[in-house]
């Protein structure tokens, strides 16, 4: 049975903090394209609003429904944003540091929207805090399966997934041989076959077991 995300954790944390920022990454395991971190904000008023119908971790939402759900999730959250780290940055600093950079950039968008991060707690999907090494000073709670169980993290997941998929569809037009419109940069058989036949592009993560392949674009 599919788990339905709730606001149990967010409501508990809102007894101690003015707002809960939820973050989730998309694209960590891809061979090409940037990694994205979505962020959403809920305050006490927002936590009383009804969770958008159909909200789930992005991996559990059919592709055809994600864009509509992302729009509704963004409208439901008090504020939202997406931060990015490029394939080149992933190669230069490693994936965990790149996730921290993307998170910090997502937080910048929230600050620009007027979110007071000093009085907020950040719920980060997973078991490792990659935000603090890049941007110390925040209160971060790493929560395993937050994108499955916590509505704020599920919303961040869907928002980031739709944004990153759009980037990969755009990149597909520049290098259609890799079929990124279908595989979104992940290691599908057709993607691996294209790398073997044509080499890698500047949008590939060359440190991810493809460092010996020639550069095509």
From TrEMBL:
Which residues are involved in binding a divalent metal cation? 24-25, 125
Q: Which reaction does it catalyse?
A: Endonucleolytic cleavage to 5'-phosphomonoester
- Entry keyword set: Cytoplasm, Endonuclease, Hydrolase, Manganese, Metal-binding, Nuclease
Indicate whether Protease appears among the record's keywords.
no
Lineage, top-rank taxon, reads Bacteria
Q: How is the cofactor bound?
A: Manganese or magnesium. Binds 1 divalent metal ion per monomer in the absence of substrate. May bind a second metal ion after substrate binding.
Does the entry feature the keyword Transmembrane, yes or no? Answer: no
- Look up the record and name the cofactor or cofactors this protein needs: Mg(2+); Mn(2+)
- Give the UniProt subcellular location, in the record's own words: Cytoplasm
Give the Enzyme Commission number. Answer: 3.1.26.4
Give the matching NCBIfam families: PRK00015.1-3
Function noted in UniProt? Endonuclease that specifically degrades the RNA of RNA-DNA hybrids.
Q: What is this protein called?
A: Ribonuclease
Give the species this sequence originates from: Microbacterium sediminicola
């Amino acid at each position: 049975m599919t788990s339905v995300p709730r606001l149990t954790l967010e409501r508990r944390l809102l007894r101690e903090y003015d707002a809960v920022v939820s973050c989730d990454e998309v694209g960590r395991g891809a061979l090409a394209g940037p990694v994205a971190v979505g962020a959403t904000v809920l305050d006490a008023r927002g936590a009383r609003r009804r969770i958008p119908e159909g909200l789930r971790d992005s991996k559990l939402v059919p592709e055809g429904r994600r864009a509509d759900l992302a729009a509704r999730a963004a409208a439901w959250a008090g504020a939202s944003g997406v931060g990015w780290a490029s394939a080149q940055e992933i190669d230069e600093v490693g994936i965990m540091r790149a996730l921290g950079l993307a998170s910090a950039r997502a937080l910048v968008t929230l600050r620009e929207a007027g979110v007071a991060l000093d009085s907020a707690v950040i719920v980060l999907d997973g078991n490792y805090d990659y935000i603090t090494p890049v941007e110390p000073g925040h209160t971060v709670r790493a929560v395993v399966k937050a994108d499955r169980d916590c509505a704020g993290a599920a919303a961040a997941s869907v928002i980031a997934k739709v944004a990153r998929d759009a980037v990969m569809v755009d990149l597909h037009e520049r290098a259609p041989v890799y079929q990124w419109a279908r595989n979104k940069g992940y290691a599908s058989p057709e993607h691996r076959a294209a790398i073997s036949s044509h080499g890698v592009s500047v949008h590939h993560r060359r440190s991810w077991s493809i460092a010996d392949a020639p550069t095509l674009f």
